[in-house]
Fold this sequence. Notes:
single chain, elongated, 9 helices
Amino acid sequence: MTAPGLDGAFEGLERSIREGSGNPDHTEQDSDLDNLHRDPRFGRMIALARDLSLEPFRSDDDRSGWRRGVPHFEGVAQRHPDAGRAWFNLGYAQLRTRDGDAGTAAFSRALAPGYRRPTTRYNLACSAARTGDVGGALRWLAQAANAGFEIQSQVWTDGDLDPLRSDARFQTLIAHFERPRTGKDKKPGHG
Length: 191
């Protein structure tokens, strides 16, 4: 039997997990959630947080690892078709394997319910760049920037944008951004 007074807490927890918070280990051990532990819904929330996590896949450079992970993310997106985060994770895995077409489709599904609009638009730009759609990539970059994504912190180091680097329109876009001064350029932060 579930405790009806906890409904709001579980609704908030699920919303938080679906919107991108909720590291499964942290959620499970968070003392602020102790009063939820005995409710059967808590186990379902932990399972959801595990499903929607990118945690096992930490290295952006491990293309073969991401390739092995794509079926997992496809399954999660099929189990949670209304969760923008599920589609975002699938798109991210596909982008890491350099499958721009598949990434575009998944990121579009993530954007439809409004999941992380600035970052999703940036990743759509990266996917478009990977497919050679320079015009589309530039449009998505502009939309990402207009939505608040700080593209200037990414354009210098993100390998997904390499196909754009020789295009004059891209050069014009980044001309006003200052190149990072440190030798520790920030790694691409798609996720």
